[in-house]
Every structure is written in C-alpha cells, then in structure tokens.
Amino acid sequence: MTQTNIIDKVTRVAIVANGKYQSRRIASKLFARFKEDERFYLSKKDPDIVISIGGDGMLLSAFHMYEKNLDKVRFVGIHTGHLGFYTDYRDFEVEKLIENLHANKRRKISYPILQAKITLDDGRVFQVRALNEITIKRIEKTMVADVAINKVKLERFRGDGLLVSTPTGSTGYNKSLGGAILHPTVEALQLTEISSLNNRVYRTLGSSVIVPKKDKIDIIPKRQGIYTISIDNKTMHYKNVSKIEYCIDKKKISFVATPFHTSFWERVTDAFIGELEL
C-alpha cells in the first residue's frame, strides 16, 4: 500500500499552540503520541482536525488559519491558562483527548460565523469572516453612521463605534457592552452600540438588536477619516470606509463532538458566576 493510500485512511491532525511554556510542552507531548499512532497523520496542510493549545485567543487564530477549510476541518481546544469558551480539555487531559478522538466517528457540533464585506470610497472591497465579532470605530473623532437592517434605516448612530457579534461571540466584548448572551447554535447576529451619544440633540436605540439569519446589517459611515476595524483578535485600519455589510456566513465552524464538549450554559456559569451554592 502506498503512503498516499495510508494517509487517506487515517485522520490528519494539525497542532497549533501559543508561545507559553506549558502550551509548547503539551504540543510536544501530542506530537510524540500521534507519531506512534498509525490512525493519525500529523499535517498542517488540509487537516481533518485542528488541535488548538492555549486559550480562546489561540483558537481564534487557528480559526483564521483554516477558515478556507471550514467545510472539512473540525476544531478542538486544550486550555493551558484561564477557562476558555472554546476549549474542552485541560492541559492534564491529553490522554483523555486522544482516547475520545479514537472513539469519535467524525461527529461534530457546528456554530454560525459572521461574514462582512468592507467597501472603501476608492472602490476596493474586502471580504472577511469572524468567529466572535467585528467592530468599527473612527480614530479621529466621534463616529457618525447610518445603520440599516434589510435596507430599512434603523438609526443614525453617533458614538465611539458599533459591534456586530455572532452567538458564540456574545459572551465576549458584546456582553461587556450590555449585549445579550445567545446560545451558539442560534443562527442570528447581534448589533451592539459602543458608547452612543444620547441627549436632546442625538438619539439612538440604545440597546442591542438581535437580527435573524435572513436579515443583513449595513453600517454606512457618514464622515471621511481613518477607521479601525477589529475582526476577532486582528485589527486593521482603513481610510474612508463607505459601507460594511454583515450577514451570517454560509459556512459554519465545527468542533469535535466528544463527551468533553462542555455544555454552553456550564461555560457561562463557570466564566461569570462561579460555583453555585444550593
């Protein structure tokens, strides 16, 4: 049997880790274990499974590394620091992870992601995806922008900026701005204002808005200048943005559905409330 045929019958695994000592140590241990196991083939090219070692920030980076492979790849996270929403395993559970990967029959759990089209005044267009959120802010002065949902004008916003989040991103920056927490399987977007101006002269809705899958959100800046657009953990600067169009992407992110894929509500409790006294 040729090497190519062998690879076709095994699971291709990519391992990505942050620069912390503990993460590198776990990565080395996984490399050694997978090299001894004929059922797995280590390859960062076209993997079936991506193992992210670190925290949520590392998994966001892994998502963007493989966002063109979302139809095929499944993700699983090992956290080596604080509790993360995307990480199912602790650093001391490597053997349990490998055992569950052996037993797994390509089962997965999938969540919606965000797509945005950024159009500049000079005609350039950029297509981007986000797992958590995309924010837009104006650097020099207060941002003024028209907000429309399905071509219906909702408001003329004035303030620091606007955030559009996915359900999985609802527990992050969105929550800190007073947005609602959505279960990650809900196919919806959430629009949340960042420090809006509300007085006798200027008025905005003042609350987050949940937008269903079929609807699109348009943000149309009304002033020229330099805009900061943050896509998950990446930040870009664009001059004279004419429009940003948001929608639910046709693709989803998929995670390995093992018994260790923690309940979303357990994650919420662990992250924000702690152990409950009954």
From TrEMBL:
One of its GO terms (cellular component) is cytoplasm. Its EC number is 2.7.1.23. It comes from the Bacteria. It is found in: Cytoplasm. Keywords: ATP-binding, Cytoplasm, Kinase, NAD, NADP, Nucleotide-binding, Transferase. The keyword DNA damage does not apply. GO terms for biological process: NAD+ metabolic process; NADP+ biosynthetic process. It is an enzyme of class 2 (transferase). It holds the Pfam family NAD_kinase. SUPFAM superfamilies: NAD kinase/diacylglycerol kinase-like. The active site is at 56 (proton acceptor). Its cofactor is a divalent metal cation. Its main location: cytoplasm. GO terms for molecular function: ATP binding; metal ion binding; NAD binding; NAD+ kinase activity. Belongs to the NAD kinase family. Involved in the regulation of the intracellular balance of NAD and NADP, and is a key enzyme in the biosynthesis of NADP. Catalyzes specifically the phosphorylation on 2'-hydroxyl of the adenosine moiety of NAD to yield NADP. PANTHER family: NAD KINASE (PTHR20275:SF0). This is NAD kinase. It comes from Streptococcus gallolyticus. The gene is nadK.
